[in-house]
């Protein structure tokens, strides 16, 4: 499995392009005698293993895609694909679930149905939703869904399992301020969208500071601005385009952020006598762990590690589209240690690498979860 993980690392594929990866996954599952469904959500793979007469059905999800960024670290199994690398450990996630699936197919020490879900395109391209839109829950009805992600800063035999919010919603927004362009020396003859945009950017951060309940975490960030031309620095442009991200842990705050950004944009536009066009793009809901599913995951983590499980781990403002599975059925998303958070070990870093020492712990966790939940 270490050799396979490093092979996947050397041949990363972006979301919905995981042709080689999904073929390897399907082959590994079929070799173990597991029924395989290919092509769900374009490149997704689902392996189904039914043992005994148990009626409970669960889904275990691993993501397969890489990121569009260069790998800068020198390693024997470094990425062979330009500007593409496994910088978040999805190669490790894939291998851990494969290892558990093959082991469970051999031992068959459970009674019920487990679906091994190998999801494409977690990194912002909508793989979970694509699988669900393709009929995942109709083809594979489940009573609960489980996800796992590596976490630098925890040791490789350490896990964190916490009920409630784990990952924030991940949404995008865009505002276009439309004024009347004019000569930069005669601003009174136009309507200045650039100055309006500046006011908007300054006021944007008051949404979290002054509008959202201080006890409710939230993030609003402007991440892109486009206006004018540096070859025409005596021209005030007609429009300014601004875009960014919004994050929240609850549906109510998520709704509030959508409303507040729009109110601010339109208010600033009215102040400057210009127009504002606003769009809020809902991408991924928050990941909120169900209490009962979390209890089951905690017991499995204790069995897998043989040590105390971290139960007060802070939530992350990152997002994960496992949320689409976990919002449809009870779900739990847990953290597995990836070793010290040093030397480029952080997610989405060009020198990141999944820690192979975590493979056994992750495979044991998945196995224990199935054997305990499907007794």
Largest sheet: 7 strands, mixed
Number of strands: 15
Q: What is the count of DSSP helices, taking H or I runs of 4+ residues?
A: 11
Order of helices and strands: HHEEEHEHHEEEEEHHEEEHEEHHEH
The top level CATH class name of the largest domain: Alpha Beta
Q: Give the strand content.
A: 25-35%
Average pLDDT reading: 97
**CATH architecture grouping of the largest domain:** 3-Layer(aba) Sandwich
The CATH topology of the largest domain is given as Aminopeptidase
Q: Structural class given helices, strands, pairing?
A: alpha+beta
Low-confidence stretches: none
Whole-number count of domains:
2
Task: Give the proportion of residues in helices.
Answer: 25-40%
General description of the model:
Pfam families: M20_dimer, Peptidase_M20. This is M20 family metallopeptidase. Keywords: Hydrolase. The protein has about 375 residues and is of the alpha+beta class. It has eleven helices and 15 strands. The strands form four sheets. The chain has a seven-stranded mixed sheet with strand order 1-2-4-3-5-15-6, sandwiched between helices. The longest helix is centred in the C-terminal third of the chain and has 22 residues, at about 250-270. It is elongated. The mean pLDDT is about 95.
